[in-house]
Amino acid sequence: MHMMRVAVAGASGYAGGEVLRLLLAHPGLEVGAVTASANAGQPLGAVHPHLTPLADRVLEETTAAVLAGHDAVVLALPHGHSAALAAQLGEEVVVVDCGADFRLRSQWSWEAYYDTPWAGSWPYGMPELPTADGRQRARLRGARRIAVPGCYPTAVSLALAPGLAAGLLEPRDVVVVAASGTSGAGKAAKAHLLGSEVMGAMSPYGVGGVHRHTPEIEQNLQEVGGPEVEVSFTPTLAPMPRGILATCTARVTDAGLDPQALRAAWATAYADEPFVHLLPEGRWPSTGSVLGSNCVHLQVALDERVGRAVVVAAVDNLTKGTAGAAVQCLNLALGLPETTGLPLAGVAP
Amino acid sequence: MHMMRVAVAGASGYAGGEVLRLLLAHPGLEVGAVTASANAGQPLGAVHPHLTPLADRVLEETTAAVLAGHDAVVLALPHGHSAALAAQLGEEVVVVDCGADFRLRSQWSWEAYYDTPWAGSWPYGMPELPTADGRQRARLRGARRIAVPGCYPTAVSLALAPGLAAGLLEPRDVVVVAASGTSGAGKAAKAHLLGSEVMGAMSPYGVGGVHRHTPEIEQNLQEVGGPEVEVSFTPTLAPMPRGILATCTARVTDAGLDPQALRAAWATAYADEPFVHLLPEGRWPSTGSVLGSNCVHLQVALDERVGRAVVVAAVDNLTKGTAGAAVQCLNLALGLPETTGLPLAGVAP
Amino acid sequence: MHMMRVAVAGASGYAGGEVLRLLLAHPGLEVGAVTASANAGQPLGAVHPHLTPLADRVLEETTAAVLAGHDAVVLALPHGHSAALAAQLGEEVVVVDCGADFRLRSQWSWEAYYDTPWAGSWPYGMPELPTADGRQRARLRGARRIAVPGCYPTAVSLALAPGLAAGLLEPRDVVVVAASGTSGAGKAAKAHLLGSEVMGAMSPYGVGGVHRHTPEIEQNLQEVGGPEVEVSFTPTLAPMPRGILATCTARVTDAGLDPQALRAAWATAYADEPFVHLLPEGRWPSTGSVLGSNCVHLQVALDERVGRAVVVAAVDNLTKGTAGAAVQCLNLALGLPETTGLPLAGVAP
Amino acid sequence: MHMMRVAVAGASGYAGGEVLRLLLAHPGLEVGAVTASANAGQPLGAVHPHLTPLADRVLEETTAAVLAGHDAVVLALPHGHSAALAAQLGEEVVVVDCGADFRLRSQWSWEAYYDTPWAGSWPYGMPELPTADGRQRARLRGARRIAVPGCYPTAVSLALAPGLAAGLLEPRDVVVVAASGTSGAGKAAKAHLLGSEVMGAMSPYGVGGVHRHTPEIEQNLQEVGGPEVEVSFTPTLAPMPRGILATCTARVTDAGLDPQALRAAWATAYADEPFVHLLPEGRWPSTGSVLGSNCVHLQVALDERVGRAVVVAAVDNLTKGTAGAAVQCLNLALGLPETTGLPLAGVAP
């Protein structure tokens, strides 16, 4: 296979490190330039000691000059930095942005949640999303610019989409509580993220709809289920490095719904999806089972007493939730088979 | 202070061990007989090496003869065993049951969720519950038989009660997702509870309203908020030994509700409660902050976008969630100040 | 009991927080001023949300004026700050220093390991240490200045002292590998201490005798076993918030030593010590069993194949390893029974 | 590449699961029969939910008939079961045993540590071991029977071998303390391995030279450093699912040894080894950096004060410590490049 070269900007963070881990195992892509800002000049071994084969590669400054000349560039930067860089990279270069900058199509939503100017939007990198006019995948094949979804939106959107698409769930009574591992909060040193603080502890944050992933979740679900969809979303921090467990409930539109009919919506929606797995009845997803993999594990139940569906999704926030999605998008953009190089098996126990 | 003697039946489990830990620090109660079934004959040091001062105390068989002659007996047995034992203990002995046997007042509910005959009900040991005719506390002073609440019901009931009592929350649109540490699943060796399985992993269980704490939660909230209350309850297992974080949301009855008015309901309800703390605005509960303490930490927010209140409660499932509540009930039953011997500070980090 | 007032300087760190937790449960001591530097002006609830009863107490600036007028002052400051403060507090005030400043009696040792001028030494707060002329305890009764031992030195010194004192261990062939929870590294935000980094990971640090606790360990063991004692000490960071497990091995002086004779040295040495427990044969210490308690759990074995004794000690680095020792010293200095207010039972599971 | 088929016996345990995970990513090997005993008849998805692509494969009974007809068979069975099975598989089948049965060349050692008859020995599957007559690798190319090393012996032997081979370390003064994740203890449900027990706790086990890996470690090191080598080995259980951190110290033979000369022995020994990495000076191994990878990370220091070398090794006990070594041996036995299909990058954070 001809190896295409991929540069990674923002390679010293957790998302960038995971992109590099996946590229190392990819048979068609190879690691090109790796760049950083504060860590520029350091060897990768100093910031990502787990990337043994890249230990001696030196982080360069994040500039368009360094990133140019690759087949593709993955941006893993804080929001607000992608637009300027992307503008300097020619249209012949595929650019995949792991940050938030180009995810929201509504300027109003962006401005309500972010502190930088709206940069516009790019095709949204969630191939499996069953939008009104077919899978999102179709828009990603051969695309030159792709916005990689956020980690929570990945878990929540794929969990709820089939039921909303099928009209089985009330769009105005959706409640999501999700637990995330600490890597979702990034690698910047903050006292409340110290191991001493987080081990043995669960706590919520961004309560009351203020988390920035809220409008992204609603954008996705509205595309699937119509403009009435609104979501109560509460994220919590769990004592584990990786993983998202999203518990999503919604009132069913038909109180007498047959549980098998409910289940069938998910089974049908994802029957041909390589990365989205509806577990057999009776087994529930665990973040431990998807660690390091690009899979989404799902299960659905009907609580007939209260007339609500409960859908639970588990993903690895860094793999399918970020870097795995980025590589999946690269595959589509570059004309490779979509699953190339992406782990289907998790690392457990 | 005259020391009253307390026997603990089922002392080899996690709940029994926590009762013993609290009794060791109690200035008015002392440890009497400690009993077990499979572990009878072993020294406590072999099953609870953390209870250093009791290391040489030998576990006796759980029989009424061994338990008799104490001022009080705490039962920490699997459900189905309490009624027969309690019947053999005279009314002069205070009996506090940490198990489920006497919690539910509805035989129908019991039979829908449990596999043993309904044993009836005892006064419910949640002093802080604001029932229609005053705090539950009044029924516990001097009581001879008390049913200690379940761990999830403690967190969820105290989280939601003020809003339901004040008519601020829709009784038919209550959704609870709660995370529990593994000690809530007990000490019996099961493969899915191995450290290798649970560290780094979150997973749900008992999804769809089938968890046995569901009817207990609804019983409490119906007493507070009327017979229409129904709850969608999803418990999840978190990678930590102790702690419950309950994220409780409900649609508010008045879409234009002032956030401060919402908050005021909780502030008022718990202003005089020694163990229930509404945190200052902007701080959210963490299970890490209540570890080993008898406190409940609460916070409430209004998500005006979607018209839902979000209330989060953190408790230690073994302390306030079980053994601390048992000692609190003992204090009330035996005429001691309610807070005697109960830790208000958690062990952190 | 007349309550004596204790001020805590450096109350916003982990050591200071643990001192406050223990003072809250102490029947003879009450919390006086609480001070900090960067956090001065904040309520304690913002930095130690687990100290519920003190949530509204405001941290003052650390000055001698604020600390004066108490029966005792506990210093929990970075090294280098204690001498100047202590000099401003009259001799009528008991000062107990949790930092390193006054632990080393050798200026040469201090200067080899620390970057501030040697401040001299105070009586060393390890009551149980069996020095050549009796327990260290005798020097602490009524003392006005006490240096609280370091966490590793507590575990290692108490583990090895009986064998060295009895001449059973070769003083020049002592090897210690110890694992510590992350709270030992403090509360300052550092990237390598993030939860994401430490959960699931063990790593060494300070390898090759460079850790600052090395000279303190040797000072203690030389006092017990003579000037030839030297120690190879390797600390490691373990994925838990609290606890030290010290695995200490030394060649035995008599290759034909009877294992029971070895064991007897420890049994005799600690027979009357309330906080130091030699476990029954066959049970090994676990940091989980001493969490939050002031106990040291010990076990000893003879590896006859290779002629080495292996002694393992478990302590809570913040309790017996720091704040518990400080309170134990306060008790001795203030004329209270030595065990007053100190937990003997750990918090487990 | 022609795909060779590999059967896995004992596929329901942790070692078997990891072998399957690695086979799924291997370009030249494919998963054949998967067998178990108690779990026979179950789908793999029920016992290894992380192996998503194999979820529907059904575990068969472990019999020679089922295992026959493959290019290779990996045995991941409790000790005592491999000999009888292997005898029924023809010499044309490569058999790699992850258990202990064929590791020890001394019947006397076997009988001192195991409770089943000695089965003899097979070529020892540690390609990197620098034995007196060259690397062990030479004996593995084209071998038909290979004994995969134990997890602790892998870390300890590779850590100490270069120094012993170079005569820099005293063979009679070697002390090893190693911490292992809980998966090393297997998947059988035992109360002391419950998550509630192990999270937040470190404890030793098999103290005093009684751990079964002791004779295997000594066999390896004696082959490298001569018959006088003896090792004090203390394993400890750490609160993490995977990983071994081995802290190995030995007195240096030359008290005036130059630290760079010490380091050079390791640098030279492993310069051409793809999986063994001496880290740059100043960086220490972490189990977190090798999780899921086949790498060994090493660092060495000289404690000149006490005349001891300290070598620390980190491996993933299930990958390089078991299943990765098995695949590495399969590669050698089957004539594939040694590194084929084996991850060099760990999964972090």
TrEMBL record, chains A, B, C, D:
InterPro entries registered for this protein in UniProt: AGPR, AGPR_AS, AGPR_dimerisation_dom, AGPR_type-1, NAD(P)-bd_dom_sf, Semialdehyde_DH_NAD-bd
Active-site residue numbers: C151
PROSITE patterns listed in its UniProt record: ARGC
Name this protein carries in UniProt: N-acetyl-gamma-glutamyl-phosphate reductase
Keywords (A to Z) from UniProt: Amino-acid biosynthesis, Arginine biosynthesis, Cytoplasm, NADP, Oxidoreductase
Pathway(s) this gene product operates in, as recorded in its UniProt entry: Amino-acid biosynthesis; L-arginine biosynthesis; N(2)-acetyl-L-ornithine from L-glutamate: step 3/4
GO MF annotation, one: N-acetyl-gamma-glutamyl-phosphate reductase activity
Gene: argC
Entry's family note: Belongs to the NAGSA dehydrogenase family. Type 1 subfamily.
Organism, scientific name: Phycicoccus duodecadis
